[in-house]
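Shipment paperwork, digital attachment
Item: protein structure file
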Amino acid sequence: MMEFHLVSNGRMHLNEFSKIAGRVAPYVDFIHIREKHRSAQDITSAINKLKEESIPSENIIVNDRVDIASVEGVRGVQLAYHSIGIKEVRKHFPQFRIGKSVHSVMEAQEAETDGADYVLFGHIFSSNSKPGLMPKGVEALKDVVDATSIPVIAIGGITPQNVHEIRRTGAKGIAVMSGLLDAHDPYQMAQEYKKGWVI
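Attachment content:
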């Protein structure tokens, strides 16, 4: 079964993001609030909006802001290279599901050693959110999968048409931004991702 993550893009109004998240919730396992330039108050408001859309706290992940995740009682945090270390988060917040964004085999192995529950690796395919940057590709993804024993979630340029390539590497799931957020019908598109995974 594919683990399906929806990630906010930092540009969309959070009211609109919450409404889309609510619509695709039957197909999506985790909703990430990834808003690097938003205030703590904005992020807290976004969490409450997701809850108003009947998304449970256990399905919500906050990027970087461990303090907000703790105060709001959500499921977990997604850490970046500049975030508090995994070991420190685990020590003080053992209840969290901790993910780490990585870009190499070495970073993924280090995250696993430090106690991450999963890693987010990318970007796999060409992506509008990473213009001009060479994608890592599925072979690099497979290298990370083979070098670690924790779940690897792929991100970057993933579509219903190429999602089966992700599955073949042994990755446990995908994380999507524009694929759902820019779709004419996000609900239908979420179903297409699920179908593409099992083809």
